[in-house]
Design brief:
Elements lengths: L5 E5 L7 H14 L4 E5 L7 H4 L9 H5 L10 E4 L2 E4 L5 H6 L5 H11 L2 E5 L6 H9 L2 E6 L3 H16 L4 E9 L7 H8 L3 E6 L2 H9 L3 H4 L4 H14 L48 H6 L15 H14 L1
Parallel strand pairs: 1-5, 1-6, 2-4, 2-5, 6-7, 7-8
Antiparallel strand pairs: 3-4
Helix pairs in contact: 1-11, 6-13
Amino acid sequence: MSQETVYAIASGKGGVGKTTTTVNIGTALAQAGKRVAVVDVDLGMANLAGFVSLTPDSTTLHDVLAGDASIEDATYRLADNIVAVPSGTGLDEYAEASPEGLGDVVDELRTAYDYVFLDVGAGISHETVLPLGLADAVLVVSTPEPAAVQDSKKTIELTARANGSVAGLVVTRTHPGSDISYEEIAARLEIPLLGTIPEDSAARESVYAGTPLVVYNAEGSAAIAYRTLAADLAGIELAAPTPRSSGDTADEPEAETESAQPAADADSTDDADSSATESATADDDAADVDDASDDDDSSQEAAPDDVSSAITEAESDH
C-alpha cells in the first residue's frame, strides 16, 4: 500500500472538479474495502455535503476548530467504509473557527482511517495554504484551460512554501481526440500526470442526485477514470463495477436515508450498511458546488501582502 495516506485535493481555480475528485476517489477506495474519511477543509465556502446528500446536524468541522466539539461529533457515516467531516456554511461559524486546529484533526483521522482526503478551498488564504503542508501529498486538479493551468502553477508554488509535497496532476473535463497534450501540461508544471478524467454529462447529474459518480454511473467513462486513479494512488487493483440490471436506472439510488447520523467512533464505519443518496433538489445548492457550473470559474486571490502573510503563517504552523 502507498505510504501516502493523507491527500489534499487542491486547485488554484474554482469550478475544475476538485470536490468531485475528492468524493469519487474516496468512494472508489471505500468500495474496495479501504476505510476512508473525506474532509471539507474549505472553511469559507463549504460544499462537500451537497455532493453526497449529507444533511449534518448542528455539529461540523467549524465546531471542532472552535473547540466546541470533538472530531467524532462531526463525523458522519456515508456508506460502508466511508465517513465525511463537513464544514459549516454560516459566516458566524466561519468567524469562530481556528484553522490552526486542522493539524490535530488530520493527525486524529490519520490514525483511524486508511485514507484521508482533504477537500481544499480554491484561492490563496491561510486556511487554503495550511492543508497543503499537513497532507502527505497534494493532488493538483485542473481543466486543460490556460487560466486553470496557470492557477495550478500557483498551487504548486504554495505547496512548496508550505513544505508540502505534490503527488501530481489530475486533468478533468478532457475530450477524446483533442489535440491538447495533457502530458505536456504536466511537463510544463513539472509534476507527474496522475490521470485524466473525461467530460461526462453524468457528472453534473450525479451532483443533483447527491450521489458519487462512481455509484451513480459506475460504468461511465469518468467513473472508470476515477476508479483507475484511486487504484493507482493506493497501489491496488479495483474490481470492475457490477453491471446494472435491465430494470435499473441511473437516477434510482440503491438506498436512501433521511439524514446522516454522526459516527460514534472511527471503527463504527465497518458496520455502516446504507449510503447517503437522497436527491439534492435545491438548484441553489447544486449551483454552489465547485464544478456544477461551467460559468463559475473565478478564482479568489488575496492582495500581495495578504499572500505573503498567508505563506508566512503556513510555514510557521507546519
